Amino acid sequence: MPINRCFITATDTDAGKTYVSSLLLQGFKALGTTAVGVKPIAAGADGQGRNGDALLLQQHSGIALPYKVINPICYQAPVAPHLAAANEQLPIDEAQLDAALAQWQQLPVQQLLIEGAGGWLLPISNQRYLADWVADKQLPVILIVGMKLGCLNHAMLSVREIERSGCKLLGWVANCIDPDMALPEQNIADLRQRITAPCLGVVPFAPDQAQYQQLATELATQFCTNAGYNTR
After folding, report:
1. Which H helix or E strand runs over 35?
2. I want to staple 122 with a disulfide (CB 3.0 to 4.6 A). Which of 17, 118, 183, 203 is the partner?
3. Can you say how many angstroms the Cα of residue 151 is from the centroid of all Cα atoms in its chain?
4. Degrees to nearest 5, angle at CA 7 with 69 and 92
5. Catalytic: 39?
6. Nearest alpha carbon to residue 117 among 90, 72, 80, 152
């Protein structure tokens, strides 16, 4: 059975890609669906060369995988990956991304979440963006909208660019990252009527444990329903 694939992108750095991906992975587990989260490219590593976001994906994935399978390309400095690549003299190799994708697609899982880095138009060379690779592979996309002042512009620019790329936008998630944001409900309602893809869920700021578990299951269910995926 082919694996259901999805690319997780966001309106910006720190919009909550890893947080929402971890929620989805835990929701899939609650639904009895085996899923893994991977991060092709990361920048910002600990003393062992491991990225914190990738470690969270490894922790919450439904099967145990070596770190290098989860995150094949990792740079030390927490900066734009193509700049870190230039500084470390280790260019981002799309052939390595292709090989990683081929390996992930052979895993004994039902769901594959591929988490990007930064926003949709993440440069990986002087000419190419990670979005170009995603479009080449025709990966469906989930957009995480970090709810803060300015998010309407960031969200609609991202949506237009995803659509222009030819990728299918499966849905979007409103992630409330700013507890002091003015008019959050009105902003979410505005995005609902502007974005034709469905809103898969609204993630509140710092939910308690009970809310978190319920939200994880609801988010995974909505993801599967709107993507047309079977949760069993």
Report:
1. strand 35-38
2. 118
3. 17
4. 55
5. yes
6. 80
